[in-house]
Amino acid sequence: MLTHTVLFRLPRPLDAAQRADFVAALQAFAADAPLTAGPVTVTTDLGLRDPANPRVADASLSTTFADVDSFTAYLNHPRHQAMVTKVLEPSGVTWLSMQADTSPS
């Protein structure tokens, strides 16, 4: 199994309406994310640290894939590409992703 986790940071100053719209778009994507092997989880920051801190993310998305081939196909899938080009890039969102082997040992 491969777990794909993405941390998102919205532009500052942080606008509550923009954040709500962004999280709604993430949740809509997560409800029907292509090629995943498990649930897609969207979480939001609790606001416990100063949002001006450049190390604070606003939201995350995490999902699993059966294997590397499934993950690679996901990256190129039209639904994923639309999320990147129609939501992430126009919103000025920055993100970091990490892929980890989470196969049972």
From TrEMBL:
Check the record and name the PROSITE patterns matching this protein: S_R_A_B_BARREL
Q: Which Pfam families match?
A: Dabb
Q: Where's the Stress-response A/B barrel domain? A: 2-100
The cross-references to SUPFAM superfamilies, in alphabetical order and at most eight, read: Dimeric alpha+beta barrel (SSF54909)
- Output the superkingdom of the source species: Bacteria
Q: Which InterPro entries match?
A: Dabb, Dimeric_a/b-barrel
| UniProt name for this protein | Stress-response A/B barrel domain-containing protein
